[in-house]
Amino acid sequence: MSKPLLTVWYNTRCPVCDAGIRRQRRRLIEAVKAGRIEFRDINFEPAALSAFGASLEDIRRRLHATDAGSRLLTGADVAIAVWRMTPGEGWLATLLGNPIALPLTRFAYDRFADLLYAWNRHKGRW
Fold first, then answer.
1. What tens digit of pLDDT does each residue of 48-97 get?
2. CA within 13 Å, CB half, 12
3. How far apart are CA 14 and CA 1, in angstroms?
4. Distance of alpha carbon 42 from alpha carbon 71, whole angstroms
5. pTM exceeds 0.90 for this model
6. How many angstroms separate the Cα of 3 from the Cα of each of 6, 13, 42, 69, 107?
7. Which of 45, 33, 40 is nearest to 17 (CA)?
8. CB contact at 8 A, 67 and 80
């Protein structure tokens, strides 16, 4: 099988993250079956992205992905890449990933991710 177009690394110990990825995986079932996208739990491979300088804590804080060109994507850029591949969600990628909206999208994603990370730490999930 060829390398996936996108490999998304996420944290199953975060219930919000896990639910979001389960939803996307269901929407992308054909792409998953065809090997075009892969979803991987960082808790099973904590050093998987260490070559990129990404630690387990980095990935617990924000989504990370690698594309077919072995480039690292983080945060909102991962969400946009997934939306581009998801049937019926390309409009989200276009709306929130355009050059004018992208800085605000990244800022909003990062603030939400910071709050979610703090909440999970407070709950003792890691």
1. 999 999 999 999 999 999 999 999 999 999 999 999 999 999 999 999 99
2. 9
3. 30
4. 17
5. yes
6. 8, 26, 18, 9, 31
7. 40
8. no
